[in-house]
Amino acid sequence: MLEQFGVPIGPMSNLGVPAAGLAVLAGCLAVTAYVRWRANEIAMRHSLPLPITRLHAVVAIVTMVVCAVLAGAMLWR
Fold it and tell me: Which of 27, 39, 63, 71 has the CA that lies 20 to 30 A from 45?
């Protein structure tokens, strides 16, 4: 029902690349979330400063790229 309100982007094969990219990003986030949680737990137990991460910047950049690709595909139609 909701697809009738969406903008047709093209063949479903065009959506495969952004979907695969988001799936890989989700898998990486799951792994790095566990690693970061573990590092934070160890740092807190030993009264050390929490480790820094650049993951937030990576997630923001990948999300912006995927959004730009999808917006470009919608405008192209």
Answer: 27
Judge whether 25 and 36 are in contact, CB under 8 Å.
no
pTM score: 0.61
Going residue by residue through the chain (77 aa), what tens digit of pLDDT does each one get? 556 666 666 666 667 777 887 888 889 889 989 999 999 999 999 999 999 888 888 888 988 988 888 788 778 76
Angle at 29 between CA 74 and CA 60, to 5 degrees: 45
Domain extents in the chain? 18-76
